[in-house]
Amino acid sequence: MTSTFRTLTVPLDGNASAGGLPQFLVRDDVLCWTRREAGLVGFGEITRFTATGPERFLEADIWWRHLVLEADITDSLVLPGTGPVAFGSFAFSKKSTHESRLIVPEIVVGVRDGQYWLTQLTFDDGELTEAGALAALDRWLGGGSGGAAVAVAGGTPGEVRTGAGDAVVRPLPLAAGATLHTGSLSEEDWMAAVTAGVAEIRTGALEKLVLARDIVATVPSGVNASKVLRELAGRYRECWTYAVDGLVGATPEMLIQVEGRTAQARVLAGTLDRRDAHVEDGIPMDYAERVLGGSEKQRHEHEIAIQSLTSQLAPFSEAMNAHDEPFILELPNVWHLASDVKAELTEVEGHVPTCLALINALHPTAAVCGTPTQVAGALIRKLEHLDRGPYAGPVGWLDAAGNGEWGIALRGAVIEDPHTVRLYAGCGIVDGSQPEAELAETWAKFRPMLESLGISS
Question: N or C, which terminus of the chain has less Cβ within 10 Å?
Fold first, then answer.
């Protein structure tokens, strides 16, 4: 690449953008990371990096650091997310054929603490100006959804079975003409996989296992990805709404957030469907505290997830703290047991670790894989009959200064073509897990995407 990578970041008038970032979610091919009206939205693409295999995080890290090393950066704000930025999505499994990716957009709109900015990124030799950046943004916003074209997240992690074996998973009132089908495993087969997982746990081979399943929605009227993102951003304000190359969702779980030398994570394990609460149960949050917080099974699952993250993060930290007791995270569909972890990063071999180096050490956590990791990973491949693709993998962004936010791609789906969406959900399996209850939990976790697609669950 002979041309110089150049970026210009300028303040953007916040008064004209009172709706926050969600108002910029107007295209189906948008790149997105937003929470509570703040975050980043990207348009276009000037370059990308792809990789597969166990070294995908480190290879992406090297590529990004080389790209920004000699970049010509004009940035009057110097905030996390200004200057050069790449959006990323990584495969869950080191054995997956799905391509992990970093994408550098042409235009980024950012919001942080009420401050709006606009960044233009290019390899062209022409002069970068504020007027030119604003004109480029107007072109992208004026293009609407770009017709029926939808960015697709690189292949189909699982195939839809057709014919007599392709049963509609349950009778739902669906969006106009939509159909809903099983993915890699039927409900009965998946519950059998849960039973097999519990049996393995009882042998002492592992302590926890996370099993996922997929369903496929076909929407003849077409999938409006921008509308899905706006619905998620509006309804799930405590989650991080994401979109990278057809991977869309709203995750409640932060794998790692890095600002300077401070790293933070939000760990979730333990779930209670809000539909299970009834008026006679009293105040909903009291019910959640009693049933979820008082469950030995749920608290055990949560403790495994916390220990998994803190033990992996410890070598990179000079100080770390976490909640002594998990708190109840209230979302529109479920309650979770949650804990926030904060660490001050230390230098490793003379350098503060980058967010991708941290991800390489942290992923996969017990919250999405199990423990011990190697045993759980092998059992997942045996029981799920599913390439998770980007589901439960890291998704987020990073900048040239080493800052970044990376969630775990949960409560999401892959838009496989303009009419087909594959949804994923998983559950933590421990000794006390019951297959029917775990199946019901997957339906609670499918609900955000089903509702955002206009499919009532």
Answer: N
What average pLDDT does range 12-29 have in this prediction? 80
pTM of the model: 0.89
Q: Going by DSSP bridges, is the β-strand pair 317-322/240-244 parallel, antiparallel, or unpaired?
A: unpaired
Q: Are 115 and 21 in contact (CB under 8 A)?
A: no
Structural domain contains residue 372: yes
Q: Six-digit token pair at 343?
A: 């660490």
Is 44 domain-assigned? no
Query: Could you say which DSSP state residue 155 is in?
Result: S
pLDDT digits (tens, 9 = 90+) for 104-119: 999 999 999 989 999 9
Q: Is residue 238 part of a domain?
A: no
Query: Is 211 in contact with 190 (CB distance < 8 Å)?
Result: yes
Q: With respect to residue 264, please indicate whether it lies within any of the assigned structural domains.
A: yes
What range does the domain containing 428 cover? 179-223+253-387+412-452
Tell the burial category of 369 from Cβ atoms under 10 Å away from its Cβ (0-12, 13-18, 19+): buried
User: Do the beta carbons of residue 216 and residue 181 sit within 8 Å?
Assistant: yes
Confidence of residue 193 (pLDDT cuts 50, 70, 90): very high
Is the confidence at residue 144, as pLDDT, over 60?
A: no
**What does the radius of gyration of the chain's CA atoms come to, in whole angstroms?**
21
Report yes or no: 147 and 226 within 8 Å, Cβ to Cβ. Answer: no
With beta carbons less than 8 A apart as the criterion, state whether 302 and 270 touch.
yes
Residue 124, judged by CB atoms within 10 A of its CB (0-12, 13-18, 19+), counts as exposed
- Strand pairing report for 262-273 and 412-417: unpaired
Q: Quick one: CA dihedral 153, 158, 163, 166, positive or negative?
A: negative
Q: How far is Cα 280 from Cα 287, in angstroms, rounded to an integer? A: 10
Structure confidence at residue 176 as a pLDDT band (50, 70, 90): low
Q: What share of the chain is helix, strand, coil (3-state, %, to 5)?
A: 30, 30, 40
Domain count, the chain: 1
Mean pLDDT, residues 272-276 taken together: 79
DSSP string, 2-63: -SPPEEEEEEE-GGGGTT-GGGG---TT-EEEEETTEEEEEES-SEEEEE-STTHHHHHHHH
What CATH number is given to the structural domain containing 301?
3.60.120.10
Cα(409)–Cα(368) distance, integer angstroms: 10
pLDDT band at 90 (very low <50, low <70, confident <90, very high): very high
